[in-house]
């Protein structure tokens, strides 16, 4: 599958007949809402875990030197918290462009984080069959990769640190993200590293 998913998302899932749609964000969509929304609510999805296994050619890296960004990996019993946004269907023109680097929209069930209740929504997922996929690596290797990567949206480390911060604000304990963050902060020469 090509790593540019704009046409694929439009054709797989026309939304124009709907008044509004819930979108679940688990990566940069938690901390960077650069689109209009009708409502914003903390939520989680079941059966998925967040992993820095997707390559970024267009935001936090380049095609020659991709960065590492988050995607979702299926895992029975897991849960992944993030932020849900109620948006109008035309917002997906912007979102599909922003998430075009390997992410496909998938329909999923969202549960609210702050009260019982659920709704159906869309989530952008990048799976192993997209051309920008990088796959698993140790958390130390992921941190080193992130530390040296940069793209048109800025340093890859900013993505990681902002995501970790946003998860703390949600009171979410994500061991993978926090382990990668810790490994990054311990790298020699990094801003957060002890100055020895
Ligand atoms: C998301 O945030 O939900 C998708 C991945 C990203 O844009 O970081």
TrEMBL record:
The keyword Lyase applies. Keywords: Lyase. Its EC number is 4.3.2.7. It is an enzyme of class 4 (lyase). InterPro entries: ChaC (IPR006840), GGCT-like (IPR013024), GGCT-like_sf (IPR036568). PANTHER family: CATION TRANSPORT PROTEIN CHAC-RELATED (PTHR12192), GLUTATHIONE-SPECIFIC GAMMA-GLUTAMYLCYCLOTRANSFERASE 2 (PTHR12192:SF2). This is glutathione-specific gamma-glutamylcyclotransferase. It comes from Lacimicrobium alkaliphilum. The lineage of its organism: Bacteria, Pseudomonadati, Pseudomonadota, Gammaproteobacteria, Alteromonadales.
């Amino acid at each position: 599958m090509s790593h540019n998913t704009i046409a694929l998302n439009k054709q797989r899932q026309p939304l124009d007949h709907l008044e509004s749609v819930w979108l679940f964000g688990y990566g940069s969509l938690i901390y960077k809402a650069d689109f209009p929304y009708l409502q914003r609510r903390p939520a989680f999805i079941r059966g998925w875990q967040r992993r820095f296994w997707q390559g970024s050619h267009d935001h936090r890296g380049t095609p020659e030197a991709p960065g590492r960004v988050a995607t979702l990996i299926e895992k029975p019993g897991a849960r992944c918290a993030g932020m849900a946004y109620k948006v109008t269907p035309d917002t997906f023109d912007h979102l599909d462009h922003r998430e075009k680097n390997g992410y496909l929209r998938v329909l999923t069930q969202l549960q609210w984080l702050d009260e019982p209740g659920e709704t159906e929504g869309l989530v952008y997922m990048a799976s192993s069959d997209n051309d920008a996929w990088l796959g698993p690596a140790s958390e130390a290797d992921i941190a080193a990769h992130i530390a040296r990567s940069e793209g048109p949206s800025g340093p890859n480390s900013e993505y990681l640190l902002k995501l970790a911060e946003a998860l703390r604000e949600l009171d979410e304990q994500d061991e993978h993200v926090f382990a990668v963050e810790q490994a990054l902060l311990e790298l020699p020469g990094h801003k957060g590293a002890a100055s020895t």
